Amino acid sequence: MNKHNYHNLEQFYIYPQYIDTYPFKKHLHNIEAIVKTNPTDFFTLNPKTYYFFKMPLCGHPQKISLVELRKRIETNDPLKLYCRICKWLINSGITYEQLAKHYSVNNVRPLSDVHYRHHPVIFTCPDCGEDTPKREMRWVLNHLKNGESFTKHCRGKCNSIGMKHPKLVPFWDEKRNKISIFQVPANDDHLYHRKWYFLCAVCNQPINTPTTAYNAVINTPRCIRHKIKSGTSFAEMAIFFSFARCLSAFPYIELNHRYKYYRHREFDIFVNVTCHDSHHFFAVEVDGIHHRNTADKDEEKNQYAAENMIHLERVRDIELADVNLKNFNNMIQRKSRDKAELNQIITELLNRFLRWLSALNMEKDQFQELKAAIIEEIQHVDVIKDEKAIWKQLNHLGKKLLKDDPKLKPIFEQLREDVRRELGDFITVTEQDIKRPFVCSKCGSTWEQYVKAVVANFRNSKRKATGCPTCANKNKELNAKLKKEAFTLRKAGFTQKKIAETLGKHPTTISSWLKKFEAF
């Protein structure tokens, strides 16, 4: 080699005897090949033989001849002054340093020797630190070049059911599943087909029947005692909640919701008490307005209960007051649909249940313990205070929530802050069994009203009326007073615009008032 022609390229040469001084890593660069290929003396190189040099713009090793390297430098083409790997990453959303962090130390080939196709590679997730094998570099690199996070392609902990669905972690029964939730890949088979064991979200006890992870995501896992099914009214949920709260701790009592006793026929709430090796049954039916057309079926159920020694109680909707059932007297007739009325109904049901228990000839200590729990529940029945806990029993919220309707956002935002925070996930657009506290967006005053009424007023008004009744033109006494003032001001020669400014009303409202006045 003529050293005068190539001496300026010595700065890019990699001396094998000093290989430890270079910032090269074994899983990124083929250090063994560099040591075997490069002579210890730069000036003994053959200009047309390929050796390892540091590429001028990136500093990464690449096999190239002196002739080719000098030619590239003289043409000054940036694309040709990078190593092969860096060329892949030009104008992409990932740098060489970032790719190097993803490239696992467990790869068979160093990164510098990997081809775009046909070479299997292993990536290390920067979030969970676990390896993910890929059949070819291009499968993931194409996405990384577009700026995507590798977490999306991770098949380690990041892709586990535990990471994808963290709310399932406390309910995962690792003992019976025999695997950690963070080791189960969140693929179609494990999410939608294979069934797993979970713990009850209410009592934290193992659930006997396994279910799919997807079902556990959309329906919080609950054991049979604490599982409320879809289509359940709030009254039914509240009654079940009180029974479950005071009876679930006793192993000799089995509490079920929607207990099927024959094919599709079922009792809303069914209590099975084991006493002296025999079973005693207590059931509650919560009859909604649709029972107006099911009197025959209700009477059949009453007869079935009587024939099978099942003590049945019925809670009847206000609309069923004139619907009689033959030969049946264990009824509690509702006088309204207000939630507050349920406190009295639940108290009466628990008292009837206690009287029924007292006739079972239970052991004295056992009965006293059970009696104390029921009395404790009777003293603390408050469906308004427990509303959030009662709603949480329900797996499916089928009705449209107020917070989910963008057109009704002004109404939802007027709900008092604590109500929005605690009950926003349960208040529906058509709710009309309890008056909610609203804070007027105009004057700041607080008033109470059914959500359905506020929504109806908002939808029916031309200007989308919001605020308290006074600000929304719904205070009849105040409006009558303001109308008189408007008539007086009109007689005094005031214009409609001036009257509107004086009374704090919209000109359209003043105009409609004055039309009626002028008609007389």
Automatic annotation (TrEMBL):
Q: Does the keyword Coiled coil apply?
A: yes
What superkingdom heads the lineage?
Bacteria
Name the record gives this protein? Uncharacterized protein
Record-linked InterPro entries: WH-like_DNA-bd_sf
Give the originating organism.
Geobacillus sp. (strain Y4.1MC1)
The entry's keywords = Coiled coil
Coiled-coil stretches, from where to where?
Answer: 325-377
Q: Does the keyword Coiled coil apply?
A: yes
